[in-house]
Amino acid sequence: EYSRPNRVPFNSQGSNPVRVSFVNVNDQSGNGDRLCFNVGRELYFYIYKGVRKAADLSKPIDKRIYKGTQPTCHDFNHLTATAESVSLLVGFSAGQVQLIDPIKKETSKLFNEERLIDKSRVTCVKWVPGSESLFLVAHSSGNMYLYNVEHTCGTTAPHYQLLKQGESFTVHTCKSKSTRNPLLKWTVGEGALNEFAFSPDGKFLACVSQDGFLRVFNFDSVELHGTMKSYFGGLLCVCWSPDGKYIVTGGEDDLVTVWSFVDCRVIARGHGHKSWVSVVAFDPYTTSVEESDPMEFSGSDEDFQDLHFGRDRANSTQSRLSKRNSTDSRPVSVTYRFGSVGQDTQLCLWDLTEDILFPHQPLSRARTHTNVMNATSPPAGSGGTNPGSNGNSITTPGNSVPPPLPRSNSLPHSAVSNAGSKSSVMDGAIASGVSKFATLSLHDRKERHHEKDHKRNHSMGHISSKSSDKLNLVTKTKTDPAKTLGTPLCPRMEDVPLLEPLICKKIAHERLTVLIFLEDCIVTACQEGFICTWARPGKVGLLSSQNQANSPSGTVV
Predict the structure, then answer these.
(1) H/E/C letters for each residue in 55-118?
(2) Inside any domain, residue 130
(3) Is 425 part of a structural domain of the chain?
(4) 502 phi-psi bin (left φ>0, alpha ψ -120 to 50, beta other)
(5) Which of 134, 216, 300, 305 has its CA 20 to 30 A from that of 174?
(6) List of residues 6+ apart from 248 with CB closer than 8 A
(7) Are strands 265-271 and 498-499 parallel, antiparallel or unpaired?
């Protein structure tokens, strides 16, 4: 457990979320991991010992305390990191961005120092993938700015020139005689831009906003690729699958939503949290793409070497998935694992399996009650019989499949009792056995949702009435949620599969703000300022017995 040196829980009222950033400085000792986290006005930089050893909190490499502003987010440049020097960007509540080197203990630059570019809180800051000098900053104003560390910000407010305009977004370039920051200004959606994430190949940018929209852009060409609307309220967090094919969001509707990048549509929602979802993240070490030929097992060490950047793995996963989609190849089994943490102090783990991912198989629209069944069962294949599959159907206990759900934008699909197939009787029996349970839970859930939405609508109105007049002017032009519900932008609850979490566990006393999957552990943090390392099964034995006695390392599925 990492925290402030005194280990006293931080009184988090009114503070910005605790965030954690990792970097590996590739030093020769084999212990190159470094950890940065912010708590209130403070920023800490430690050697990270993971599951191997308990943290020594008395010796931070660097510690900073800020006055008049608080750190809100940070990001290391993985390309330039060495044992002697690292580049860390830190965003602040008053709008500035600082570039610091916690190893040399230097502060090299301050961007937006006079707040001439943007006066609102920095919500997300990230280095542009593959670049040593470009970085992107999002603000609660709804604007994003592209900076170059080599350029200055100028002494006057920037003048802008329109570069591109599209549905709910505009992009401006900075008009000046000499090149200055910001290089670009993006205005996206309405209200705060809460988080953005680059795709594993660095070509696309997913943004989530307080207006409830996910917007995915081609970063270089500044083109809008696709959009999605939350079921209710703002979207707070976003992440990409390791192969870049799926995006998961979380937000104020207490749901996690899975969106297909290729099809530009919602393919599943997950219901397990009892409050807002603050972080979503894929687990690249558990996500598996396996071909039916046992010689080509995908869990090899080579696959996992470059997973931090998702590049190598993404390519191998993509090639396998393209094989999966070609007609003459052997079948491929695919399971994506992702996690989420929320203000309800719970960690949820989710599996995205075949029946959800490939909906042309007739029963794929079913709800998967993985938690009710045996969670250790192998990844499920299709639970139904595809009319074109010569009657070869697989039924596994892991994912039980009720009859297909009606869907307005779906492909035509066959009924459960496909008379031409040998195994359809068995499928039908299993399906009808579960359907009672599934429809019952669906019905209850719908009623609960209406009740919740009703209450929340009041509270959201109450919040917005207190906010600035400028925001109120903007919100009047909002898309009417009633118009998007039931469209491909925001399908109804009964129109897409509803995932149940594999595990849902309360792991903190305060709201959770961090979830990071590492090779031998999972890292979480809560608003009290405690950063916890949870050993993966079988990895906890790496701790010495003395440290194990002192360490809070838990074990997670």
Answers:
(1) CCCCCCCEEEECCCCCEEEEEECCCCCCCCCCCEEEEECCCCEEEEECCCCEEEEEECCCCCCC
(2) no
(3) no
(4) alpha
(5) 216
(6) 238, 239, 241, 256, 257, 258, 259, 280, 282, 338, 340
(7) parallel
How many domains is the chain partitioned into structurally? 1
Q: Rounded distance, CA 271 to CA 254, Å?
A: 7
Domain of 510, in residue numbers: 232-289+332-358+485-541
Q: List, as one string, the DSSP characters of 233-271.
A: S-EEEEEE-TTSSEEEEEETTSEEEEEETTTTEEEEEEE
Query: What residues does 22 pair with on adjacent strands?
Result: 35
User: Cα separation of 327 and 306, whole Å?
Assistant: 30
Q: In this structure, what token pair is assigned to residue 546?
A: 């003395």
Strands 42-47 and 62-65: antiparallel
Contacts 24+ apart (CB under 8 A), 81-86: 81/23, 81/24, 81/25, 81/26, 82/25, 82/26, 83/25, 83/26, 83/27, 83/28, 83/32, 86/23, 86/25, 86/34
C-beta atoms surrounding 372 within 10 Å: 13
Residue 165 forms part of a structural domain: no
DSSP H/E element including 44: strand 42-47
CA 218 – CA 538 distance, rounded (Å): 41
Ordered strands of the 223-229 beta sheet = 193-198, 204-209, 213-218, 223-229
| Residue 105: both structure tokens together | 């203990």
SS3 493: helix
Radius of gyration of the chain (CA): 24
Fill in the amino acid letter for 212: G
**Element (DSSP H or E) covering residue 172:** strand 169-174
CA 433 to chain centre: 35
Q: Number of C-alpha atoms within 13 angstroms, CB side, residue 493?
A: 20
For residue 2, give both structure tokens: 């990492």
The answer to whether residue 159 is domain-embedded is no
Running along the chain, 557 residues long, what does each successive block of 10 average in pLDDT? 88 84 84 93 93 86 94 97 95 97 89 96 98 97 97 93 96 92 97 98 98 97 97 97 97 98 96 98 88 41 38 43 44 85 98 84 44 37 37 39 38 36 39 36 42 41 37 46 85 95 96 96 96 90 43 44
| 456: enclosing H helix or E strand | helix 424-466
Is residue 327 within 8 Å of 354, Cβ to Cβ? no
The dihedral formed by the CA atoms of 235, 340, 15 and 49, expressed in degrees to the nearest 10: -140
Cα 135 to Cα 125: distance, rounded to the nearest angstrom: 7
How many Å separate Cα 297 from the centre of its chain?
27
Query: Which pLDDT value is given to residue 355?
Result: 86
Chain centroid to Cα 119, Å, comes to 27
Question: Whole-angstrom Cα distance, residue 351 to residue 338?
Answer: 7
What local confidence, expressed as pLDDT, does residue 53 receive?
Answer: 83
Helices (H), 467-537: 469-475, 481-484
Contact 225, 244 (CB under 8 A): no
CATH of residue 518: 2.130.10.10
